Amino acid sequence: MKGKVTLFTLLMAGFGFAQIQFPQVSSKSEIEQTIGYTKVEVDYFRPNLNQRTAFGGIVPFGQVWRTGANNNTVIQFDTDVLIEGKPLVKGEYSIYTLPSDASWEVYFYKKTDNWGNPKDWNKDLIALTVKVPVQKISEKVESFTIGFDEVTVNNAKMYFAWENTKVALKIDAPTQQIAMQNIQTQLNDQSSARDFYGAANYYYSNQLDLKKAQEWINKAIAKDPKAPQHFIDLKTKIDQDLKKK
Prior knowledge:
The chain is α+β, with helices and mostly antiparallel strands. Helix content is 28%, strand content 35%. The chain has helices at 2-15, 175-186, 193-205, 210-223, 229-244, and strands at residues 27-35, 38-46, 74-77, 81-83, 86-88, 91-99, 103-109, 126-149, 155-172. The protein has a nine-stranded antiparallel β-sheet with strand order 1-2-3-6-7-8-9-4-5, with no helix packed on it. A hairpin with a 2-residue loop joins strand 1 and strand 2 (38-46). The radius of gyration is 27 Å and the shape is elongated. 23% of the residues are buried.
């Protein structure tokens, strides 16, 4: 009998058994937001309320939270940025938070391969800490959500929302710095009319050096004898603003 069992076991092992894949209770989400030239990517898992209380319940106040479920919530920046006015070097970070009823501390942590909180919390691995106030919202959010709003070419608000709680961080991107560097290093006499128009329009729209903008729009028109109407319109605006000054 013992031999038969052993033989049966060996035979069945030969067929192999595939591990059954079950769906994650907390769904995985990936979001991407561009702010000017800066790309921001976030990967995270979204726990649900399921008739529970989020903060002060599922997530205790005064304890570091993984800011999602399962693996680390990971954020990546491809340029240096400012978070709430504080510098953060480009790279990949896990996001941890310390929620309270009135405010959250948000940590950008250099190690991103933890399941949940790190086994050993290392303060030396905290690249940045910011503190932001809690907003109470009327519309109930069932699934924990990370998103972006108030997006411009220079900055955006990244928010965390769950149940009736919302917390937002301001992210400033180095858009103007990169744009001006591109203009200074790439704009030359061989540049197209479109490039000169683009440089003039950028300077005018951001109220930078209007004389430089005027010089560039004049070059754009000179390079294109059939300059489109929006070239002429921009020149008119720049000339009028300079006269006012």
